[in-house]
Design brief:
Blueprint: H1 6-29, E1 43-48, E2 55-59, E3 64-68, E4 88-93, E5 98-105, E6 108-115, E7 133-137, E8 142-150, E9 155-157, E10 161-170, E11 175-178, E12 180-189, E13 194-208, E14 213-228, E15 233-240, E16 243-248, E17 253-260, E18 264-268, E19 273-277, E20 282-287, E21 292-293, E22 303-308, E23 313-317
Parallel strand pairs: 2-6, 2-8, 3-7, 3-9, 8-10, 9-11, 10-12, 11-13, 12-13, 13-14, 14-15, 14-16, 15-17, 16-18, 17-19, 18-22, 19-23, 20-22, 21-23
Antiparallel strand pairs: 1-4, 4-7, 5-6
């Protein structure tokens, strides 16, 4: 005899109804504000920076790190109502186990995020994005070096700056630099995107594994190398006075207004390569199964090297 399915259906509907009621009661208890479910009570803290420095080193743990001047905080509405006397560091702490330390040694400013909770206390919820952020409000964006590390957070340099050495590293966060002038810019992440806009550097190295590389109006005086494994590279108005290499494994490479004094290099395995160069070149093309369309060689022009296994290649001259 086949047993009726009705009791099981009724039980499932009953448990579903109970779950909906419990969720409604929980939201009612916190005034229907999702932040009421946070298991850590963070408080904002402003730490003045009252000593001179030539270098800044930031260990952000899993925090986002934002570096900007007070004048550019209009891009972040959550900071509009804060009374800020810069230079300072804005961080969010629980007053006990989670805090941000600032210290100086040999004209180096160290900013470190500490989380001293045991692992079982880290299991919880926090629905506020700003609670895991370190924000530097700096009046003077001219100094020698900036090094920032974060395990899973984003790193943003969001104001015009002249910094000789810049290095950003994150595991899964996005890296972003805008209006930067430097001698050396290095940005490395595993699964995040890398974005550089309106910047000028002697040496640029951009590296990500599964993220995209996005470039707009970037100039280098010597070497420019951007690489990703499964992400795409898109570039507009990129120039180099020496070498320029865009490299990906399975992603596409697209560009406009690109040029390099000693000739650009484009390398991909299964992605397409499509774009426009500012000036004519000689072309060395290696492609196994894709379609190829490149302009005629210009005698004595720099050599443009293009390599693709199964992707299409289409290059034009502006």
């Amino acid at each position: 005899m086949v047993k009726s399915k009705k009791p099981w259906v009724f039980a499932a509907l009953l448990f579903l109804a109970i779950g909906v009621i419990l969720i409604t009661v929980a939201f009612y208890s916190v005034g229907f504000h999702v932040s009421g479910f946070n298991t850590v009570n963070y408080e904002p803290e402003l730490t003045p920076l009252d000593r001179p420095y030539d270098k800044i080193i930031i260990d952000g743990a899993s925090c986002d790190v934002i570096i900007m001047t007070p004048q550019t905080r209009s891009a972040f509405p959550e900071y509009q109502d804060l009374e800020i006397t810069s230079p300072c560091v804005l961080s969010y702490n629980d007053g006990n186990s989670i805090f941000t330390e600032c210290g100086y040694r040999d004209r180096v400013l160290y900013i470190t995020r500490r989380d001293l909770r045991p692992w079982y206390e880290r299991i919880g919820y926090d629905f506020r994005t700003e609670s895991e952020q370190i924000v530097l409000f700096l009046d003077d964006m001219h100094f020698d070096a900036l090094e920032v590390q974060s395990a899973s957070g984003n790193i943003w340099l969001y104001s015009a700056a002249e910094i000789k050495q810049v290095q950003f590293e994150s595991t899964s966060g996005e890296l972003f630099a805008k209006d930067l002038t430097s001698d050396s810019l290095t940005m490395k992440t595993t699964s995040g995107n890398v974005c550089v806009w309106t910047s000028n550097s002697e040496h640029i190295l951009l590296q990500t594994t599964s993220g995209d590389v996005m470039l707009d109006h970037v100039h280098t005086g010597d070497t420019f190398h951007a690489m990703t494994v499964s992400g795409e590279i898109s570039a507009a108005a990129i120039t180099s006075q020496n070498t320029l290499t865009l490299e990906t494994t399975s992603g596409d490479i697209s560009f406009t207004g690109l040029d390099a004094a000693n000739g650009p290099v484009f390398e991909t395995t299964s992605g397409d390569i499509e774009g426009s160069l500012s000036t004519g070149k000689r072309f060395s093309v290696k492609c196994i199964s894709g379609d190829v369309e490149v302009p005629a060689d210009v005698p004595h022009a720099p050599l443009c090297v293009i390599q693709s296994t199964s992707g299409d290649i289409e290059i034009t001259i502006e």
